[in-house]
Amino acid sequence: MTTTNTSPKPSLKKIARLLIANRGEIAIRIMQSAQKIGIHCIALYSDADKNAMHVKQANEAWYIGASPAKESYLQVEKILQVAKDAKADAIHPGYGFLSENAGFAQAIQEAGIIWVGPPVSAIKAMGSKSESKTLMEKASVPLVPGYHGDNQDETFLSGQIKNIGFPVLIKASAGGGGKGMRVVENESQIAAGISASKREGLNSFGDDKLLVEKYITRPRHVEIQVFMDQQGNGVYLFERDCSIQRRHQKVVEEAPAPQFNETDRTAMGKAAIQAAKAIDYEGAGTVEFLYEESPNGSGTFYFMEMNTRLQVEHPVTEMITGLDLVIWQLKVAQGEALPLSQNQLSINGHSMEVRIYAEDPDNEFLPTTGILDFVALPTLVEGKVRLDTGVKQGDAVSPYYDPMISKLIVWGEDRQQCLSTLKQALQEYQIAGVTTNLSFLRKVVNVEAFKQGNVSTQFIEEFNDQLLTTQDVKQHHLFAAISHHMLTRNSQGKEQSLASDDINSPWHNVTAFRLNQPAREILNFKLKNEEALCVSVDTTSENSWNILLQEQVYAITARLESGQVQYEVSASDNSSVSWHGARVIRHDHKLWVYDADGESQFEFNRQDYNQLDEQQGSLKAPMNGTIIQVDSQAGQVVKAGDVLMIMEAMKMEHAIKAPEDGTVKEISFKVGDLVDEGALLLEMEEA
């Protein structure tokens, strides 16, 4: 569908110097397209980003402030001053940060600079979930039943929730990215749900207004990419399925949506254009819907929200249409008409995208920080395997910004071929030094329901047992770790040795001399499930050992070849012999082992060497962050599970709870304090 109005033709103004008000992978993505069409790109950087990849790739870069985003990338006045000093004639906000900030867009336009984004009025209209629902209702776009009004009295909202019927979703009206959202399943959860959503909305968006609506228990999340120009022309570039999510953050996206018929595609596309027209939209936007499948094959969909920016997952749309959406954005911002009409657009093949995060899926997806000690990238193929990233080996994942490392995007002639390509690329992609969700993603794409395209927003919860298998440590990975240690412990600089002069090191306790016996070492490992393993290693030759593991003896011969350890294993109770190859990476007290069967992670168990673990009754910060709420005081008697404090880190809230019944002895921090990972937050005395 193409729409045209009779508004005056906009004057064309070429963009020559583009400032990108973002960082990392986002900034690089914008630069790649802008530089392709001859535009000079200006980057911004904070203290944490002075050596970042996006700074090096830009034509020029300007310092913007301290590491925390609120002191740098969110400083509107600083950004505008840089734009003026750098003589930028346009600003692209990327996605995230200020991309949907109406005040920022207004300030840019008042300064006489081109804003690469939609009109301020459109941002305001869609920035409020409640106002957007009202507008969509007037535009005859289908809505989920609920309350989207201005009455924010908690008693009134509680009554609305009861009237809607459980389960109900409470949302921060100004929210996005899963912030300020709570599912209420019974009456006892209402008060806490309202309180938490209000607090998150206020902390994240400066607005505690809420809306409530029926929570659809097993929907799919299907969104439509729309594009409008200043002449009033509009097209939809088909749909993306973003159903697989954790904490309302998307994990896997694909286009076109699996098991999605042409009738629903056309109906949803037309509804998305109606939504864009209702707010006189311009540029790239995404209209998100909840989609319920029905037995007869034709589903029902409801408007959820409209993101007035380019989405993180836009590359899958680019892969199936052959278009560059950033170039389209720049053309529209210059006043040009859309390059294609609706009947010129078509779907070619299938594309999937996965987001690689620095996070621990086995610890409630808690973000992680550290140095990317080792990065092995998948084989990149133009048009088939693409990687959008802003970091490389040796870079740090800091606590100041979103923990996304990269986006891996693949294309195939059909969904089956696309999935096969994705599996291969995920197998090749290896990262050590920081815990990531790569292993989790490999499990997701191997779930039979995903292979069949049977997905919903409840996918991770439904297949939790298959996805979060912390005990799945492969024995031959342990043999690889041992072999690597034995081969490298005496290396001089070529490999980082696992042997140590530290008397507390688990590798220090070596009894190499045994009268008339092979040299023996005792190695201690701890697995991710806290299981401890003690392994005896008897050296029989320079590269051969007998290993005693859980009362079973194994003979191992190994060698280092092209950065990998190759090893042969035979058990004493049978004649089976097998060769394996694996890459072993060490970071501090952790080991990562990768091979064709996946990965395993081990930790050197220092408990036997007088290393104190978590102090009894104390609670430490899980990562660097800021204290945003203190719910306890010294002398207070608490029960196990009571929330004592809430800290915010990497765009997420983390509740610090009492591990047992007891009394709070001392609180070390107050609201607003910055805390380092491992800092003692408070002390408790066990009941």
Folded structure, characterized:
- The chain is an alpha+beta fold.
- The chain has 5 domains: 17-123, Rossmann fold, CATH 3.40.50.20; 145-214, 2-Layer Sandwich (Dna Ligase, domain 1); 220-467, 2-Layer Sandwich (D-amino Acid Aminotransferase, Chain A, domain 1), CATH 3.30.470; 475-609, 2-Layer Sandwich (Glycoprotein, Type 4 Pilin), CATH 3.30.700; 618-686, OB fold (Dihydrolipoamide Acetyltransferase, E2P) (Beta Barrel).
- 24% of the residues lie in helices and 33% in strands.
- The chain has an 8-stranded antiparallel beta sheet with strand order 14-13-10-11-12-15-22-20. The protein has an 8-stranded antiparallel beta barrel with strand order 25-26-27-28-29-30-31-32. It has a 5-stranded parallel beta sheet with strand order 3-2-1-4-5.
- A hairpin with a 7-residue loop joins strand 24 (510-511) and strand 25.
- Helix 4 (102-110) runs antiparallel to helix 5 (120-127).
- The chain is globular and about 85 Å long.
- 44% of the residues are buried.
Secondary-structure blueprint:
Blueprint lengths: L16 E4 L3 H13 L3 E7 L6 H5 L2 E6 L10 H10 L4 E3 L9 H9 L3 E2 L4 H8 L1 H10 L7 E2 L6 H11 L3 E5 L8 E4 L5 H16 L4 E5 L5 E9 L5 E13 L2 E7 L6 H17 L4 E10 L7 E8 L6 H8 L3 H9 L16 E8 L1 E2 L5 E2 L2 E2 L2 E3 L8 E5 L6 E2 L6 E9 L2 H14 L1 E3 L5 H7 L3 H4 L7 H4 L1 H4 L7 H14 L21 E2 L7 E9 L4 E10 L2 E6 L2 E10 L2 E8 L5 E11 L2 E6 L2 E7 L13 E3 L4 E6 L6 E2 L4 E7 L2 E6 L4 E6 L6 E2 L4 E7 L1
Helix pairs in contact: 4-5
